[in-house]
Write a structure and sequence with these properties.
heterodimer; A: Helix Hairpins; 2 domains; about 0% strand; globular; B: mainly alpha; Cytochrome Bc1 Complex, Chain D, domain 2; about 5% strand
């Protein structure tokens, strides 16, 4: 970690007093990164891109939006019709939420598959789960702001969940609403919080990155970097790869914004909120559907709420549920199998969350919910004991499979260099 | 060897994306089910697809249908007369159209409200003063505002078209209560709106087909525009953005390969 020599005298002068340039050089330029990262490692920078996009478009929308029950819906339509490029800003923001979740969900499943939550990255993982929680709260409140039918009824259903808390539940709901139903005080506080929370997310993201840079990225082999021959500087290798990933992401994102902007939305949200008329089916946004399915799977209200939050809570303790010393699913034949079952289970839960809570859907929801928890609470701890893992490669640059180009002694020499 | 591993990883990533896609479509299907129940026919629209556009002649005819038929009960509250430039009208024509409407203004210097001729900056006035007045005149049913109707119903344009041409004799006439009408497209088949179009209802300003199908198509085109007046600009901008991004994908891919060349070589 030698300090870089800056040629520009102004940069040199500043860096001597405020070492921002050294900092950027260490963390973005020479930051040693495993050389074998796949495209699944692009999702972190994409999530960052999505977050920045949401904040920028969100601030512009806030300049034109009116958080009042009598004006919110109309102010959104004014943005769509009368604000210059307002439709573009709003469609970016609206679809951006969905794409942010798509990126983050892939990012999470990548972490699950390659054991990125294991020592020494437990706190990195926990901070990530915290970001997910904050994102969910932010997205929920954001969906309320246009004050359409789904905004209103979604807010009513979700805030009502807190009434399940014994003794104080009803008082908490009144406190959340700022009244006796979802109304103007609810809308204005949701707007204030929706503006605040993204900046909390930025804060946790910074901690997430600090924790990441402590030990560097995990990699598809899940083994530790053993020396210089295993890593390459972040810049220009991964900056160029992230740039390419960003372009592919933007292409998919743009096709949704410009050609199918309402595909992921619900038509009912173009009907102004009407407290006297309940929609036939109240469904949350797609990214909440798996959790919504878990909530409805439990016949008891409090139980459903606890299980729904439990589905996230179990992720916080995941590093201590999966005790297998091998990180990457690539060398864990059984774990790999159960990983894909879990992914299918989550997709099934998402599907069920969008279906009415009746008949076979309820039974399936219960089974899928049970499996979700069994995976984390029973299967993973059990696998840590019984699974026979495949042999690990000696180092990243000498993979066992295919007998890499660097011989074992060379790899050891590399180790000695450090 | 590494290439193969990379391919497996990519395949895994694509599979994950596909799963998310499946999940996303599952959101849409319940929405369809919620508003459906009726028989919705697919119709071909000029505004479908990435190259979609609004046919201006059809928009003008559709506006005429709205004005002479729909407007007696349905408002268009988010549309201002100035927006009709999208329909191909000149400024003078828009002024003339606006002047045919009366709007409430005021208070004046004496504190009185007064009516005056509308100007292009005014919104299209609604037929009723408020929702209660609308319900009172329609046997308790509220004729919804039409500015967003094409976006506020699942499969909007096809639904509206099917609804307009979907008035049929009920299979058992006893099943239709007073003040309700039988419609094959409407969820539950009983709708409070009397059949608005029969064909040959109006004489089109520029002449043309006045069959119920043609008039319905025109008015649905008009309503699709009213819900998404930005659609043409949006799709045209989209084409340019996509072209730009395709080029950027290739350029960034090329630069990545160039930068990674030495790493790849050392692995070969």
């Amino acid at each position: 970690m030698s300090s870089p020599e800056f040629k520009n005298p102004v940069v040199k002068w500043i860096d001597h007093r405020l070492p921002v340039f050294s900092f950027m050089h260490h963390e973005l330029h020479e930051y040693p990164t495993p050389r074998n990262l796949s495209y699944l490692w692009n999702l972190g920078s994409l999530a960052g891109l999505a977050l920045v996009t949401m904040i920028v478009t969100g601030i512009i929308l806030a300049m034109h939006y009116t958080p009042h029950v009598d004006h919110a819906f109309e102010s959104v339509e004014r943005i769509m019709r009368d604000v210059n490029h307002g439709w573009l800003i709003r469609y970016i923001h609206m679809n951006g939420a969905s794409f942010f979740f798509i990126v983050v969900y892939i990012h999470i499943f990548r972490g699950l598959y390659y054991g990125s939550y294991k020592a020494p990255r437990e706190l990195l993982w926990i901070l990530g789960v915290l970001i997910l929680l904050l994102m969910m709260a932010t997205a929920f409140m954001g969906y309320v702001l246009p004050w359409g039918q789904m905004s209103f009824w979604g807010a009513t259903v979700i805030t009502n969940l807190f009434s399940a808390i014994p003794w104080i539940g009803d008082s908490i709901v009144v406190w959340l609403w700022g009244g006796f139903s979802v109304d103007n005080p609810t809308l204005s506080r949701f707007f204030a919080l929706h503006y605040l929370m993204p900046f909390l997310i930025v804060g946790v993201v910074i901690l997430h990155i600090i924790a990441l840079h402590r030990f560097g990225s995990n990699n598809p082999l899940g083994i530790d970097v053993s020396g210089k021959q295993d890593t390459i500087p972040f810049h220009p290798y991964y900056t160029s790869k992230d740039l390419f990933g960003a372009m592919v992401f933007l292409t998919i994102f743009a096709s949704a914004i410009f050609f199918y902007p309402n595909f992921l939305g619900h038509p009912d949200n173009y009907i102004p909120a009407n407290p006297l008329q309940t929609p036939a089916h109240i469904v949350p946004e797609w990214y909440f559907l798996p959790f919504y399915a878990i909530l409805r799977a439990i016949p008891d209200k409090l139980g459903g709420v606890l299980m729904m939050f439990g589905a996230i809570a179990v992720l916080f303790v995941l590093p201590w549920l999966d005790r297998s010393p091998v990180r990457s699913g690539r060398f864990r034949p059984l774990f790999k199998l159960f990983f894909w079952v879990l992914l299918a289970d989550c997709v099934l839960l998402g599907y069920l969350g969008g279906k009415p809570a009746e008949g076979i859907y309820v039974t399936l929801s219960r089974l899928a919910t049970a499996y979700y928890f069994i995976h984390f609470l029973v299967i993973l701890p059990l696998l840590s004991v019984v699974e026979k893992t495949r042999p690990l490669p000696q180092s990243i640059s000498t993979p066992v499979i295919g007998g890499g180009m660097v011989s074992a002694p060379a790899a050891k020499r590399g180790k000695a260099d450090v | 060897m590494f290439k193969r591993i990379n391919q497996t990883i990519c395949a895994g990533g694509i599979a994950m994306l596909a799963c998310v896609g499946v999940m996303a479509t599952s959101v849409v299907s319940p929405a369809m089910a919620a508003g459906g129940g009726g028989d919705i026919k697919d119709h071909e629209w000029t505004f479908d697809g990435p190259f979609g556009y609004f046919d201006k002649a059809s928009l003008q005819r559709g506006f005429q249908v709205y004005r002479e038929v729909c407007a007696s009960c349905h408002g268009l509250e988010y549309i201002a007369f100035r927006n009709f430039s999208d329909l191909g009208y000149s400024d003078a024509e828009i002024k003339a159209i606006a002047a045919e409407y009366e709007v409430m203004d005021g208070p004046d210097e004496e504190g009185e409200m007064f009516t005056r001729k509308a100007i292009p900056a005014d919104r299209v006035p609604s037929p009723y003063a408020n929702e209660n007045a609308a319900r009172a005149s329609n046997g308790g049913a509220y004729p919804p505002d039409l500015s967003l109707i094409a976006k506020a119903r699942p499969n909007g344009a096809n639904y509206l078209y099917s609804l307009l041409v979907g008035y049929k004799d009920a299979p058992h006439s006893d099943d239709v209560p007073d003040g309700m009408y039988y419609n094959t497209a409407y969820s539950g088949n009983l709708i409070a709106m009397p059949q608005p179009l029969y064909g040959d209802d109006i004489e089109l300003a520029g002449g043309g087909d006045t069959s119920i199908e043609a008039l319905s198509e025109d008015v649905v085109t008009f309503l699709a525009w009213a819900a998404e007046p930005e659609m043409e600009t949006r799709k045209r901008t989209g084409i340019a953005v996509m072209l730009f991004l395709f080029v950027m994908c290739f350029v960034s891919y090329g630069s990545m390969r160039y930068i990674w060349a030495d790493i790849k070589k050392s692995k070969a």
